[in-house]
Amino acid sequence: MKLTLKVWRQNGANEPGRFETHQVEADxxxxxxxxxxxxxxxLLAEKKTPIAFEHxxxxxxxxxxxxxxxxxxxxxxxxxxxxxxxxxYFKDGExxxxxxxxxxxxxxxxxxxxxxxxxxxxxxxxxxxxxxTGQAQDGNSIAIEKDLAGQAFDAATxxxxxxxxxxxxxxxxxxxxxxxxxxxGLLPQGEVExxxxxxxxxxxxxxxxxxxxxNTAACEADCPxxxxxxxxxxxxxxxxxxxxxxxK
Amino acid sequence: MxxxxxxxxxxxxxxxxxxxxxxxxITFLVxxxxxxxxxxxxxxxxxxxxxxxxxxxxxxxxxTSYGLYFFILLHTIQGIALAIKNRGAKGSKYxxxxxxxxxxxxxxxxxxxxxILAFLCIHMGDFWFKMKFTDTxxxxxxxxxxxxxxxxxxxxxxxxxxxxxxxxxxxxxIVLAMHLWHxxxxxxxxxxxxxxxxxxxxxxxxxxxxxxxxxxxVIIPLAHFFSK
Lengths: 248, 228
Known about the structure:
The structure holds two protein chains of two kinds.
Chain A: E1 2-9, E2 18-25, H1 32-45, E3 68-69, E4 72-73, E5 95-99, E6 108-110, E7 113-114, H2 117-124, H3 146-156, H4 163-167, H5 174-185, H6 188-191, H7 194-207, H8 218-222, H9 230-245
Parallel strand pairs in A: 1-5
Antiparallel strand pairs in A: 1-2, 3-4, 3-5, 6-7
Helix pairs in contact in A: 2-7, 3-5, 5-7, 5-9, 7-9
Chain B: H1 2-9, H2 11-36, H3 46-57, H4 59-90, H5 109-133, E1 139-141, E2 148-150, H6 152-159, H7 163-190, H8 199-226
Antiparallel strand pairs in B: 1-2
């Protein structure tokens, strides 16, 4: 299949960006990233600079293959990352527009690669459990209700890719932050620090300059792990409860 | 108090202000509609004019009305501040816009809100201002009421004989409906009230409210216009 790609090229956060148009011959069995590899090999053969894009596991768990494809983070299919998107979902002769995540707190490093260390700093602010748990315990030694475990696990599927921020018209990181707060706070080991964690992570999220939530649910629609905005409601509740109700 | 100020200016705190003031204004709309439906009574304005007198003279209502003005201003200022902050946080826009299943009115709340504010200025300038600060309204008296009251009913009726103003009101109510379509359920989500059992009911109630309240309001100018 023959495709026309309009790809965003930019040399750095403060450099001007532009679209570059390329033709590529792809196979419908290729993943989107393999198609990008073919394009880059062609560029290298012509002694041109290949398009910079992030990738690692190529099996939907690392959260690095971030690109906005035809206006949607991770492309048109719901519940998939770019690496899991196959070319059979595109038509022969189609023009595909590829852009980086756009948000002020995700400055562009090069082309489609953005700097997501703001997420790391939100995690550093409290997205951990400081209790030393020692050896792994027997699975049955701590009783956890099945529904609660399921809820925590659903939140824990967040791969921190930043599609929520990319999809949000406000560039808000609330779905990411809420998912991390929920997955730690719902389980007994993490519940101990829940109240202080909520405050410190929300404060860091604000400090990073992410926008506020308008409840449009754009994040939920484009999250490759389909994390629900009920987590955001849970975070709001926990934050208000923690600030107004706790001693800290 | 610095912790409290920090709370109110955090992203969640700012949304909390939007949510609470929004819910107050939602409650106000019900009261406002219930009172104003008396404009449809066929009694030459007696029930509406005596109601208007009560609303402008009762100390409890007067105090509440200052709260209302304050909350309208707070909702507006906080809303504009959030819209500016959010636009800044997004930075640049995508060349291709997404067609994901997202709330379309939800992304336009600031624009819809600004239009509602413009409508409010026209609306209050026409009736509230003329009633409170000018002597342009005639005085009327009714049997069984031992005082004269301002004839706001005739002023309303006269205003709604103007087709341009009727169109402005119809557009104003459509904009209000779109704002409420997202705003009603959004207020509950911001408060953290998202529950598997109750959220579907909140969504249904919000959509019914967003249709029925503006519809109730829009009947008034239309009825006055077409009854002439």
